[in-house]
Design a protein that fits this description.
This protein is mainly alpha-helical and about 100 residues long. The chain is about 75% helix and about 0% strand. Helix 2 runs antiparallel to helix 3. The longest helix has 28 residues.
């Protein structure tokens, strides 16, 4: 199920990129978008493996969920910061608010 979600997310990303490129008249930075997506995947894979391993080692369904989820969340944030995912930088929200509104 996780693999299917990953594939559907990737397909949605491609469709969105094509539509945004048209709407923005070619001003979409595809290289940077692919680099960021690669960084996110690179941080998510080890976090998922670690979370799965911790969940399998925990005893009890609620404990499995909590332990696996906590490990995945913390490890993802640490790895994403380490590989330079810009959305986790302080002030990233502030930068998004400064973008001009796009008009139809």
């Amino acid at each position: 199920m996780a693999g299917a979600y990953t594939l559907s997310y990737g397909a949605g990303l491609l469709v969105t990129a094509v539509l945004l490129r048209r709407r923005l008249e070619g001003r979409l930075d595809g290289r940077r978008l692919c680099r960021t997506y690669g960084r996110v995947v690179g941080a998510a894979l080890p976090a998922a493996v670690a979370g799965w391993a911790v969940a399998r080692a925990a005893d009890g369904s609620a404990l499995e969920l909590l332990a696996g989820g906590a490990v995945m969340a913390v490890l993802f944030v640490l790895l994403a910061r380490a590989v330079g995912v810009s959305g986790l930088r302080p002030g990233a929200l502030r930068q998004l608010r400064q973008l001009p509104q796009l008009r139809a």
